[in-house]
Specification:
- It catalyses: L-glutamyl-[protein] + S-adenosyl-L-methionine = [protein]-L-glutamate 5-O-methyl ester + S-adenosyl-L-homocysteine.
- Its EC number is 2.1.1.80.
- This is protein-glutamate O-methyltransferase.
- There is one protein chain.
- 43% of the residues lie in helices and 19% in strands.
- Helix 2 packs antiparallel against helix 4.
- It is globular, with a radius of gyration of 20 Å.
Length: 268
């Protein structure tokens, strides 16, 4: 067992050097279990063989990324929380004399940033009044997001009328996002644990991702989110990811699972 742990840490170190992703920042039991399952499925007896395989086989490398990033998403996930964006945040944004800047961090296959675009449009903001940066570490997932084609199941929680207004039905089980939704969203690869953060965002949406990180990683990410927000900006997290004592990171509670930046940042 001790040897297995040492081999996993060796594997994590190789991955960090190769693609800049630090597996030790993710909760180890869940991550090691998922990757062990993948390793065994490809008949690799040890972590060294598995690392060699993901380096030479693009299919296995993509499966590795998929296991690591958990690409599970849907439109309007937890609808009541999205209502807060329309009811409490959009009125603020309508008063701005500049475009609203939003960031959908770890956006997976695009349901989240497109949901945000639809919520803002339904609240009276035209597409030229806001811009959404959508980022993820998995470039394959973002390619699917750019295509904007989804199955009916992903629209289960979308409000009545949304499908016809913002999607074009391509078949019995396929829907394409309309260009009016796509035009305000731009996609870019970004590693939350390693890459620099942009600044000046009015809203950052990062949901159902932080639960996979260690507490140490969260302690570094939350202050980076705070600094990336404009004064009065808000961080929107997932329903399993409440921030305890948000004041430690320069936030105050704005609504359930919404945290507003306190200005100035602590210690400044």
């Amino acid at each position: 067992m001790e040897r297995e742990r040492d081999e996993y840490l060796w594997f994590a170190a190789q991955v960090l050097r190769w693609i800049g992703v630090d597996l030790t920042e993710y909760k180890r039991p869940q991550m090691e279990r998922r990757l062990t399952s993948l390793r065994q499925r490809w008949n690799c007896d040890n972590w060294a063989d598995f690392f060699a395989l993901i380096r030479r086989d693009p299919r296995v490398y993509q499966e590795f990324l998929d296991k690591m990033t958990i690409n599970v998403s849907e439109f309007y996930r937890n609808p009541g929380r999205w209502e807060v964006v329309g009811r409490r945040l959009a009125p603020r944004y309508l008063k701005l004399s500049r475009p609203v800047r939003c960031w959908s961090a770890a956006c997976s296959t695009g349901e989240e940033p497109y949901t945000l675009a639809m919520v803002l449009m339904e609240s009276g903001l035209s597409p030229n009044r806001f811009e959404i940066l959508a980022t993820d570490i998995d470039e394959s997932a973002m390619e699917r997001a750019k295509q904007g084609i989804y199955r009916t199941a992903s629209l289960e929680h979308a409000p009545s009328g949304t499908s016809a207004k913002y999607f074009e039905q391509l078949g019995e089980d396929r829907w394409a996002i309309r260009p009016i939704v796509k035009q305000s969203v731009r996609f870019r690869r970004h590693n939350l644990l390693a890459d620099p953060y942009d600044h000046g965002f009015d809203l950052i949406v990062c949901r159902n991702v932080m639960i996979y990180f260690t507490e140490e990683a969260k302690m570094r990410i939350y202050p980076k989110f705070r600094d990336a927000l404009a004064p009065g900006g808000v961080l929107f997290v997932g329903s399993t990811e409440p921030i305890f004592q948000p004041e430690r990171f320069g936030f105050r509670v704005f609504d359930t699972f919404f945290y507003e930046k306190i200005s100035p940042s602590p210690g400044r």
